[in-house]
Write a structure and sequence with these properties.
mainly alpha, 3 helices
């Protein structure tokens, strides 16, 4: 099954939001050490996923004129959600 650009964009947005949540936990000085460690491990997996989604989006975007670039997508996500 091949994902469309809009499906990839949604997955990228969800991944960025989850990464932001993990960052908050990791930086919380009152957070439990186990929670921080779990969040750190989860963040590494999310970063790998983010990298893969970025590559997939850029490859598909090169064939499309209707969608925004990856960089503009990320900027939009950060302005709207984070």
């Amino acid at each position: 099954m091949e994902l469309s650009l809009s499906q990839l964009a949604l997955l990228i947005e969800l991944t960025e939001v989850e990464l932001a949540e993990m960052k908050k936990i990791i930086e919380d000085k009152n957070a439990d050490d186990d929670l921080i460690n779990d969040s750190s491990e989860h963040s590494l997996q999310l970063l790998a996923l983010s990298s893969t989604l970025k590559t997939m989006y850029k490859i598909k975007w090169a064939d499309s004129e209707d969608e925004i670039s990856y960089e503009l997508l990320i900027d939009d996500i950060h302005e709207r959600r984070l």
